[in-house]
Amino acid sequence: MLRLLKRHFYINHIYILNSAELYDPPTGTWTITGCTNEPRIYHTASVLKNGKVLVSGSMTNTAELYDPLTGTWTYTGQLHGIRWWHTASVLGDGKVLVAGGVNAGDYLNSVELYDPATEIWTIVAPMSIPRILHTATVLRDEKVLVSGGDGSYSPVGSAELYDPVRNIWTNTGGMNGTRIGHTATMLPDGKVLTAGGYGGIAELYDPSTKTWTMTGTMNNSRISHVASLLNNGKVLVAGGEPDEGVINTAELYDPSTRVWTTTGSMNHDRSWFTASVLEDGKVLVAGGLNNGYFSNMETAELYDP
């Protein structure tokens, strides 16, 4: 999801398509907008400070910009290599840090930085290990916390910090278990809640001590789920895949008690989908898969806290 002109923006990334749509919350309707110049899958989309949207990666090294004022896409600078299943983080200065991913079976530890002012990608310091299906979280001090993922065909529990001022990565405290396809949510107090990824275990990262501590365990094991920070400070986790199949259940994490409680289930089983917190506090979930990789979905639904 990307918020544009008070609408919400999606790119289909289940099959390799180039279509895009806008969701208008007041009317609850979807409208077709401009198509990307190339079909994409497992790419990233980032809202820039100028309001445009940067889409990067997939099975190509190209990147494109979406202009919400015109509804059109234009090519921008090319990445230095092909990557998908990477992360993209908008830094405080407006630049975008792209880390990890895979290229034709080669897991990547390489990292690039996109400058919207020049539309140029620059290679920066690499991560300590290759990672795909990891998470990247911009902390309050503008450092980027990268955790977990698959490091060359093996899930990992390590974490590292990128300092954009010094252009260096440093290892930080390791998680209490390995994770892949998990979620990482920064809480109002600056800590990061990491949940799921082949299990229901959750833990908190404290940037002040650079340590991880176990917190309440979810009611369901989950991978490829979504996590959304609600306006009341709680975290909504929904969908995903347990040991087998796809689920529709949802639960809430309360940072004040560190306890998970079940909440209303979605109307459909979903994994590999998106979730967006709207201006009225509701959460829009859209698309995804409901039967592994064999059944993609075009439905959307709203959660009312």
Major beta sheet, strand line-up: 1-2-3-4
The CATH superfamily title of the domain at 182-305 = Kelch-type beta propeller
Count of helical segments? 0
Helix content: under 10%
Distance between the amino and carboxyl termini: 19 Å
Query: Biggest β-sheet, characterized?
Result: 4 strands, antiparallel
Strand content: 35-45%
Keywords: Kelch repeat, Repeat
Pfam family, one: Kelch_1
InterPro entries: Gal_Oxidase_central_sf, Kelch-typ_b-propeller, Kelch_1, Quinoprotein_ADH-like_sf
Could you characterize the architecture of this molecule?
Keywords: Kelch repeat, Repeat. Pfam families: Kelch_1 (PF01344). It is a single chain. The two termini are 19 Å apart. This protein has strands spanning 2-4, 7-11, 20-24, 29-33, 44-47, 53-56, 63-67, 72-76, 87-90, 96-99, 102-103, 106-107, 111-115, 120-124, 135-138, 144-147, 159-163, 168-172, 183-186, 192-195, 202-206, 211-215, 226-229, 235-238, 250-254, 259-263, 274-277, 283-286, 300-303. It has no helices and 29 strands. The strands form eight sheets. Strands 1-2-3-4 form a four-stranded antiparallel beta sheet, with no helix packed on it. The chain has a domain at 182-305: Neuraminidase.
Write a brief structural summary:
The protein is mainly beta.
Could you outline the blueprint of secondary structure elements for this entry?
Layout: E1 2-4, E2 7-11, E3 20-24, E4 29-33, E5 44-47, E6 53-56, E7 63-67, E8 72-76, E9 87-90, E10 96-99, E11 102-103, E12 106-107, E13 111-115, E14 120-124, E15 135-138, E16 144-147, E17 159-163, E18 168-172, E19 183-186, E20 192-195, E21 202-206, E22 211-215, E23 226-229, E24 235-238, E25 250-254, E26 259-263, E27 274-277, E28 283-286, E29 300-303
